[in-house]
Design a protein that fits this description.
The complex is a heterodimer of chains A (111) and B (115).
Chain A lengths: L3 E3 L4 E4 L4 E7 L6 E7 L6 E6 L3 E5 L2 E6 L4 E6 L8 E9 L4 E4 L3 E6 L1
Chain B lengths: L4 E3 L2 E4 L5 E6 L6 E7 L6 E7 L2 E5 L7 E4 L6 E5 L8 E8 L9 E2 L3 E5 L1
Parallel strand pairs in B: 2-11
Antiparallel strand pairs in B: 1-3, 3-8, 4-5, 4-9, 5-6, 7-8, 9-10, 9-11
The chains are: A mainly beta (111), B mainly beta (115).
Chain lengths: 111, 115
């Protein structure tokens, strides 16, 4: 079992729809969770982090965390073509805070 | 621009050659990480520095790989006797590490192609 797993893609949604990206993790002691966006050929760019159970909203983005189920999700409302990218879920852990990433989910928002 | 810089941005080399990459973190960040990302995968942790001390290394970091951070500022990652399997994006990230919400900021990466 991989330490961090993301729902297999690619995911395609129409412009204006809600995109839902999911991630599960295996280390129950994990405390901090991050969503990065990565455009083709570029480095990961932080979108949001969450460390408390529940929802956290930032503009069109909402991160959801359920530690009991070891599940993190990212919702993107009113999806735009510019949101088309690979979305990476990352979990911070270990003694020195290294990030463990999922394999990424490719999102395509079509006009 | 996150403030983390990496050079070169692209490197093409022939198998068997040595290559060296440089990372300049955000100046006040004492923690520095190297990750490697291959096509279609998420980044994988390679090694971690706190100031000049290398405190953690991944099993991915074979004996052909060496990393340094001599004065606790910039860091270098060297790959000796490169192999085609080393072709990847090499990412550097830095952070202050002061709390659970503190985040890692990535540089633009160095894309290595081994022919």
């Amino acid at each position: 079992q991989k330490e961090v797993e993301q729902n297999s893609g690619p995911l395609s949604v129409p412009e204006g729809a809600i995109a839902s990206l999911n991630c599960t993790y295996s280390d129950r002691g994990s405390q901090s969770f991050f969503w990065y966006r990565q455009y083709s050929g570029k480095s990961p760019e932080l979108i949001m982090f969450i460390y408390s159970n529940g929802d956290k909203e930032d503009g069109r983005f909402t991160a959801q965390l359920n530690k009991a189920s070891q599940y993190v999700s990212l919702l993107i409302r009113d999806s735009q073509p510019s949101d088309s990218a690979t979305y990476l879920c990352a979990v911070k852990g270990g003694s020195y805070g290294k990030l463990t990433f999922g394999q990424g989910t490719i999102l395509t928002v079509h006009p | 621009d996150t403030g983390v810089s990496q050079n070169p941005r692209h490197k093409i080399t022939k198998r068997g050659q040595n290559v060296t990459f440089r990372c300049d973190p955000i100046s006040e960040h004492n923690r520095l990480y190297w990750y490697r990302q291959t096509l279609g995968q998420g980044p994988e942790f390679l090694t971690y520095f706190q100031n000049e001390a290398q405190l953690e290394k991944s099993r991915l970091l074979s004996d052909r790989f060496s990393a340094e951070r001599p004065k606790g500022s910039f860091s270098t990652l060297e790959i000796q006797r490169t192999e085609q399997g080393d072709s990847a994006m090499y990412l550097c990230a830095s952070w202050t590490g002061t709390g659970p919400t503190d985040t890692q900021y990535f540089g633009p990466g160095t894309r290595l192609t081994v022919l």
